[in-house]
Amino acid sequence: MNHRLLLRIGIEHGYEYRGGEGAGQDRSTVLQLTPRPETLTALAGHRLVLRSRPDGVEVVAPVDANDLDRCFIALAPDLTLRFDLQGPAAELAAYSDLSGLRALTAPCFTNDGSTKAQLTLSEGQQALARGALATVEISGLADGWLAAPPNFVVALAAREVRWIYYYVGEADENLAIIDRDPDRAKAPLTFAVEVADANGDRVAASLAERFPDRARMRLVSEQALPCRRQPRRYLALEGNRVITSELPNPGLDKQSTVDIDGQAHESLYHVVIT
């Protein structure tokens, strides 16, 4: 019996972005889609085959031998496929913007019966499964999908935070972070240089206790930066001399909330001691 692709669901995450354009630039291999029990029953009843992919799932249908554009078993008008979006919650929270999901009681990514690629996040009609981040719901399945199988996308955004580099060492009036990445030449990352005031900054307070007699500065990114798996390179810490030719990116485990211009900002930080 011949089989044809009916639909595909992929998961994309801004954290996986590697630059450039094109399909697959930000596919997530950490998140997964688990079919609900009633979906497994519906798939079996229509002899549809569910296949796992590194970034999601696809559904393959047996087709009529006399008409390859028609499913072997007619698709029920009310056929709806539901999946649980699952992944390591603690890890995801470190680099994901989950505010949209947390604002809903039963977050659900749905196609609303259409073939539009990006699924819409809305309040679901069914309770969220235990341990799931959201439900993914596909409806409106039709024979016409065989000719042009929709590629649905569950898209999650990366968490955006300020980057802070703390410098402990000799006083240096020319201290600065220089962005020498050629790919960012037209829009380099910029950092404000300021005294590491202990007020509203627990990291600065800790450094003040440890190094009371040394100069302590903090260099804060002018903009919040999306978390990325791929490192941002070619950031140099310089002053009257080159202190560090290439700064490491702040680790996801180095998180703090700091007061910047009277407002609380989430941040990732790294400490440089000379």
- What's the order of the H and E elements? EEHEEEEHEHEEEEEEEHEEEEEE
Instruction: Give the domain tally.
Output: 2
Query: In DSSP terms, counting alpha (H) and pi (I) runs of 4 or more, how many helices?
Result: 4
C-alpha geometry: elongated
Round the Cα radius of gyration to an integer and report it.
Answer: 25 Å
Give the percentage of residues in beta strands: 35-45%
Number of strands: 20
Please state the average pLDDT score: 94
How can the largest sheet be summarized?
6 strands, mixed
- Poorly predicted runs are 20-24
Helix content: 10-25%
**Structural class per helix/strand content?**
mainly beta
Distance between the termini: 70 Å
Describe the model.
This protein is mainly beta. The protein has two domains: 3-158, no CATH class; 160-273, no CATH class. It has helices at 37-45, 89-95, 99-102, 202-210; strands at residues 3-13, 32-35, 49-53, 56-64, 67-71, 80-86, 96-97, 107-110, 120-123, 134-139, 151-158, 160-169, 176-179, 191-195, 215-221, 225-226, 235-238, 242-244, 255-260, 263-273. Strands 1, 3, 4, 5, 7 and 11 form a six-stranded mixed sheet that branches. Strand 19 and strand 20 form a beta hairpin. The longest helix has 9 residues, at 37-45. It starts with a strand and ends with a strand. Residues 20-24 have low confidence and may be disordered.
